[in-house]
Amino acid sequence: MMQLVRTSAPTLLARSMATAAAVKLPDLPYEYSALEPYISGAIMEIHHSKHHAAYVTNLNKALEQQEEATAKGDISKLITLQGAIKFNGGGHVNHDMFWKNLTPHKDYTPPSGELKAAIESQWKTLDNFTAKFNASTAAVQGSGWGWLGYNKATGCLEIATTANQDPLAISGLVPLLGVDVWEHAYYLQYKNVRMSYLDAIWKVVNWKDAEARLAAAKK
Predict the structure, then answer these.
(1) Is the pLDDT of residue 18 over 60?
(2) Distances in Å between the alpha carbon of 179 and those of 34, 163, 182, 197?
(3) Per-residue confidence band for 21, with pLDDT thresholds at 50, 70 and 90
(4) Quick one: average pLDDT of 75-95?
(5) SS3 for the chain, per residue?
(6) CB atoms near residue 168 (< 10 Å)
């Protein structure tokens, strides 16, 4: 028979406070205007300080409630919280990576090393890869993400998409590069023309970050 471990109020409060403090909105590694003209400063400011911040706030609330429900042995509450944790946790994880996947155009360098070799092996050229990535990502219905992932089982790269804020990791792939195609990521500048946004974003992709993620995934 399963026994529930009861937690004292002071311990529960300490855990809740620790959980709430654990997830914070990260600072951007560049100014809001640094990705112009490809992504406007206004978009970046709203996207980071409003949208990402909301995911962080709501994730912390859900995690606090999860701590309380765990202490009480409230399984029904734990189940109902999973959707909020997945959505807001995914929103935080995805955006935390997204900001690092971007870089000011003045610092842009094309892919190199193992990542370049893998892209050319599978898609022949970088242009072929970006065309296939854009076609796949533009076709996302509603809101979601386009991804370049690494499949540890096959040792190959894969283009993938996820809906809403689902992180790529749930598919079993290691995310190397993610592109947000929620309208808040581009609408102020590109209106409803998602493909124009996708064409432009390659001017500010941080391939060095993607290369480091691939190297880490192969260890």
Answers:
(1) no
(2) 17, 12, 9, 10
(3) low
(4) 97
(5) CCCCCCCCHHHHHHHHHHHHHHCCCCCCCCCHHHHCCCCCHHHHHHHHHHHHHHHHHHHHHHHHHHHHHHHHCCHHHHHHHHHHHHHHHHHHHHHHHHHHCECCHHHCCCCCHHHHHHHHHHHCCHHHHHHHHHHHHHCCCCCEEEEEEEECCCCEEEEEEEECCCCHHHHCCEEEEEEECCHHHCHHHHCCCHHHHHHHHHHHECHHHHHHHHHHHCC
(6) 26
